[in-house]
């Protein structure tokens, strides 16, 4: 392995990479051309999700930095930002980095894996390919959304079955992000869709502006906002609606044994802080409490009943593939990630394949079945 070359490109000591490989904090993916390394954890300042491709040249695509979440917004905005803030939409999908590696457009998940499904769709978009070829060393960071995706299904009218909306342009190797307005101008020049931009506000006016925008987004069934330094010199902050917290909880409680308690707890705590900061009265608190309680109880009861009636819990996705080969490549990818899936309801049309992909939620099925059979927790 070319560890010395990798270490030089990343600007860290070679022994750190060797140690991380031994601890499996770095994983080598050999069944891809070119082979690549994935940083499964932060290593010496290199972010989790960083991918290092070992082709003719070493190509680095840095991991996407974790975004801080605001629980109680106003004091955080006041302390964190210097003078102005940019506000843009946070969409409900999955984080994708799109990069050019040895002439190929590749789409990487947040964890750093090359996703064949996402790669097939985004590599077919000429504007994205043209942007990456004419802006070497740049990475498009965005949200993949829509009703035909294998990770997070959410309907956006502007996205259709599968959409990609950029929210950052970053240096592949150094991870420096382009200023917001410059980024938007460049994306629009290439005709690449980007997340909705709500404007730049003075720091003192930003909190009320964010509250107004988040309330409007909630009414539309949308997730929330990301608050950024317009020059991208400071880390961003994300802030979501009560409806989004409830939606996350409802999804997770369909499969209550698949998620850690931190997932549930943090979303419930957000509700308390937001209710206080929004100075909600009795009627508003009642509405929030009802929404929160329903999101926890109703999907869980439905899942328990399904298991009681002999069903296996699954998460279902309807997906379109160009052909059998593309489908099999994606299934192999999922199984290598340890994801248990079965394919159902295959429909072949015009050379393509539409399938219902059922992800088996074994932990929740087995634990619920165990309790129903008379075993204690």
Any overview of this molecule?
This protein has helices spanning 3-10, 14-23, 73-80, 116-123, 126-134, 180-190, 203-219, 242-252, 261-277, 282-308, 324-336, 362-372, and strands spanning 26-29, 36-39, 51-54, 58-61, 68-69, 84-90, 94-101, 104-108, 138-145, 163-171, 197-202, 224-228, 237-240, 314-321, 341-349, 352-360. With 377 residues, it is α+β, with helices and mostly antiparallel strands. The chain folds into 4 domains: 3-61, Roll (Nuclear Transport Factor 2, Chain: A), CATH 3.10.450; 68-240, DNA ligase/mRNA capping enzyme (D-amino Acid Aminotransferase, Chain A, domain 1); 242-308, Methane Monooxygenase Hydroxylase, Chain G, domain 1 (Up-down Bundle); 314-360. It has a 5-stranded mixed sheet. A 4-stranded antiparallel sheet has the order 1-2-3-4. The mean pLDDT is 95.
Q: Quick summary of this structure?
A:
The chain is of the alpha+beta class. It is about 40% helix and about 25% strand. It has helices at about 5-10, 15-25, 75-80, 115-125, 125-135, 180-190, 205-220, 240-250, 260-275, 280-310, 325-335, 360-370; strands at about 25-30, 35-40, 50-55, 60, 70, 85-90, 95-100, 105-110, 140-145, 165-170, 195-200, 225-230, 235-240, 315-320, 340-350, 350-360.
Number of strands: 16
Overall average pLDDT: 95
- How many distinct helices? 12
Point out poorly predicted stretches: none
Query: Largest beta sheet, briefly?
Result: 5 strands, mixed
- The Cα radius of gyration reads 22 Å
Strand order, sheet with most strands:
5-13-12-6-11
Percent of residues in helical segments? Answer: 25-40%
Tell me which CATH architecture of the largest domain applies here.
2-Layer Sandwich
The number of distinct structural domains comes to 4
> What's the CATH superfamily of the largest domain, by name?
DNA ligase/mRNA capping enzyme
Determine the N-to-C terminus distance: 47 Å
Highest CATH level, the class of the largest domain: Alpha Beta
Annotated CATH topology of the largest domain: D-amino Acid Aminotransferase, Chain A, domain 1
What is the ordering of alpha helices and beta strands? HHEEEEEHEEEHHEEHEHEEHHHEHEEH
């Amino acid at each position: 392995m070319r560890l010395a070359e990798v270490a030089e490109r990343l600007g860290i000591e070679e022994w750190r990479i060797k140690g991380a490989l031994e601890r499996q904090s770095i994983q080598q993916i050999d069944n891809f051309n070119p082979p690549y390394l994935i940083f499964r954890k932060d290593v010496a300042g290199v972010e989790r999700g960083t991918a290092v491709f070992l082709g003719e040249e070493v190509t680095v695509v840095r991991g996407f930095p974790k975004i801080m979440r605001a629980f109680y917004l106003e004091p955080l905005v006041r302390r964190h930002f210097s003078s102005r803030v940019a506000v843009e939409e946070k969409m409900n999908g999955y984080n994708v980095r799109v990069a050019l590696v040895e002439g190929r457009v590749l789409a990487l998940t947040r964890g750093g894996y090359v996703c064949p499904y996402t790669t097939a769709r985004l590599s077919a978009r000429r504007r994205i390919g043209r942007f990456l070829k004419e802006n070497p060393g740049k990475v498009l960071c965005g949200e993949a959304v829509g009703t035909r995706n294998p990770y997070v299904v959410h309907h956006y009218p502007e996205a259709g079955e599968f959409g990609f909306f950029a929210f950052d342009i970053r240096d592949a190797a150094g991870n420096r992000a382009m200023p917001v307005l410059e980024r938007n101008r460049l994306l629009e020049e290439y005709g690449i869709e980007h997340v909705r931009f709500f404007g730049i506000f003075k720091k003192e006016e930003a909190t009320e502006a964010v509250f107004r925008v988040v309330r409007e987004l909630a009414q539309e069934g949308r997730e929330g906002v990301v608050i950024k330094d317009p020059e991208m010199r400071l880390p961003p902050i994300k802030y979501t609606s009560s409806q989004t917290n409830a939606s996350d909880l409802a999804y997770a409680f369909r499969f209550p044994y698949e998620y850690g308690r931190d997932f549930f707890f943090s979303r419930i705590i957000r509700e308390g802080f937001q209710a206080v900061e929004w100075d909600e009265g009795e009627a508003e608190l009642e509405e929030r409490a009802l929404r929160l309680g329903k999101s926890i109880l109703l999907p869980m009861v439905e899942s328990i009943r399904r298991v009681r009636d002999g069903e296996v819990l699954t998460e279902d996705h309807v997906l379109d593939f160009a052909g059998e080969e593309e489908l099999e490549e994606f299934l192999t990818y999922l199984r290598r990630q340890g994801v248990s899936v079965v394919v159902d309801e295959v429909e072949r049309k015009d050379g393509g394949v539409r399938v219902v992909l059922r992800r088996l939620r074994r932990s929740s099925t087995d634990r619920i079945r165990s309790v129903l059979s008379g075993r204690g927790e």
